[in-house]
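Form 7-S
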Amino acid sequence: MKLVTLTALFLIPFVIYSVTRTVSLDGTQQYTSIQAAVNVCSNGDIVLVYPGRYIENIDLNGHSVSILSLYFQSPQQTYIDSTIIDGNLNTCITLVQGETLTVNGFTLVNNEQNQYYEAQNSGGAFNIKNNCHANISNCIIRNCTAKYGGGITSDTNTIIELSNVIVHSNYANSWGGGFRLGAVQLIWDADHPSSVYDNVAPFGMDFYIGYCPTSVNIQLALGSIALNNIDNFYIYCTDNYPSPNVSIDQSFFTLVDNDIYVSPAGNDNNDGLAPSNPYKTIKHALQVINSNQDNPRTIHLAAGVYSNTENGQVFPLAIKSFVSIIGSGEGNTILDGLQISSFFGGYHISDINISGISFINGWTYSTVVAPLILKSSHDIELRDLVFSNCNSYLCSGITLSNCYNVVIDHVQAGNTTAAEDMATISVWNSYNVYINNVISIQNHITNSDYNMLGLFFDESGIVLRNSMITNNSAQDAYAFYYQNILSTGAQQDNTLDMSNVLISNNSITQSSWVFSPIYIQSRFQAANINNCTFAGNQGLGTLTKIFAYAEVNNLVSYNPQFNSELFLHNYLTDLGIQAEVNINNSLFRSNSIASDLPNLVTINDCIFNGNPLFQGNTNDSLLITQPEYYYLSANSPCINTGTADTTGMNLPDTDLAGNYRVWDNRIDMGCYEYGAPPVANDDNTNPPLPDRIMLSTYPNPVYLNSAKGAYTFIEFTLPERAKEQPVIEIYNLKGQKIRTIKLTDSFNSLVRKAGLSELNDQDGRSTSEFYSTVWDCKDERSQKISSGIYIVKVRSGKHQTAIKMTILK
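Output:
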């Protein structure tokens, strides 16, 4: 009775001067809808609601009122359970511009049937806007869906008082499964505590706290897990705002400190500890797995399709630190967003690996999510992933923001047509990002107002290697974008290191907004572009514009439909930057390279008005859409005309087809080497390969304390298509194995799976398979290894070889 007394005291002024208006669905009271009663209320009036399901979206019309169930008169749980406000896929109650509301004794839902759709409303049960005050007592908020704040969302200068409120099983497709809190004063009744648990969102499964200048208190009797601080999974607080004061006494979930297995045919009532007894939903696995820094855990996803319609999956989901999500291989483990949702989001997380998964039909119109998005996170591995028919704000694949120490390896994204931006990979304000074996293919933007296509890197440090951007189209977009212009702190060390990249057959029908389809600006460090081919692209104006500093070596730029190939903006007048640019051993279709300051441009051994004589120019059976179209033919002027000294150029030992990078004692221009034998070639005049595998690491040695991070590319070519997928094993000099890396696909296989022709010359020259991966110099427990000499061994079937690698402090 104590709670009733407190509530009655709160309402005494209203009771004395107010009018009580009664509501019942059966017509026995004054009104049959809550909104009808509210419409005739004055400030301080009471709306007394009899049991029933009221399918309504209630607005207060500028008044301050109380909406009470019969629980207010007789505090019985049955009145809470049976007096339901159902928002029917929209917000149940909205407060605006200084309104005050007291609610007591209801169940609030807006998605009772758990329909899977992309909500556009803010706040599933309550949307509490500017300068409003809500007192919510003895209520259950469940099965609500919203874009922001599955249960409750608040805006500027709001006050929310909560007493004996239970918020569970709500869903938001962006921020805050239970609560999305802005500048709010949140007051919890300590004598009648509330509970918040089992909600879902990609940022803050239970709570998202943003734009709140004062610290928020979260005091719960029962939460998803017991906490005394934010964990960035259940409780998320944005940067630059005070962390909340957290006190959660009891856990709804029992955490599992083991690897967990999930299968579409599983059951969430299983223990999930073995493949034979798996959970059914990825959501449940993420909720219960322990985030253990000392012993990182893995969620293993069995083969099959994971979707809402087929097996009750819910996306998007938040990600936990020290938890990896490993599928059984792209094409085997398939996550289907049903063109309704994205998949994963992570904020302030570290030490994760997401790999072996195909993401299909991941669509959302939210401005804060992408198919896979990570913010303010580090030590991330994203490997062996395919994104097909996915699109969301700015991206059709992976988005990084304010991240560092990230590996993106063996990723394909494409086969998407939409009006909006759809960069395959977009990276913002991040550094030490290593991108290898990426294919951006068949992305098509239909609206001229959107400009992000292919790969998009802003204010970031990027190493890009062994990748293709091909067969994409837009009216006015960047096929490739890199910019670093901010002058603060470590960002001055960021730059682009790009090698073995093919940008081909992308169609940009106009360039009125973008600077050019290929845009590179690096104001503090020279952008490095080595052994790349930009060819067969269609559009107007200039294909490539480079602003500020650059070092270009062995580039082939041949795009007859463009007016010119390259313009150098090496004088930035607003900043007074006069930048040196070096262009070496490159071929351009145009007759010159225009620049702002020609005296600061050094051009050595370049070919102008050139034709690289691609094999596609001489072989009618090759299509411009195929990578092998851009191989060099026998009479190409690019053969043996690359730079004589490749020291420091961060070049792989093989070209993009897996053949010798340097042949006839001289490197060729472009990303393909002519005449180099495949590893399988048995001609005795060719130099022998150790155990018939060509293996290299770069850089070697690796410096643990380098500003670029402790990463090395491990690259090798097998003499023939692997019957057994190759394995990389790394040993210390004591013979102890410290890391095993299992590879799933060669680059050749990745290209074949992308729907492009097999990387194989028409004369049958190339039968080898080119593999490359990035190692973060960590052991099996995700711990950085110590300095010393290590043995890198590669084996596949009967073939094996090994080399030494040095790790230095």
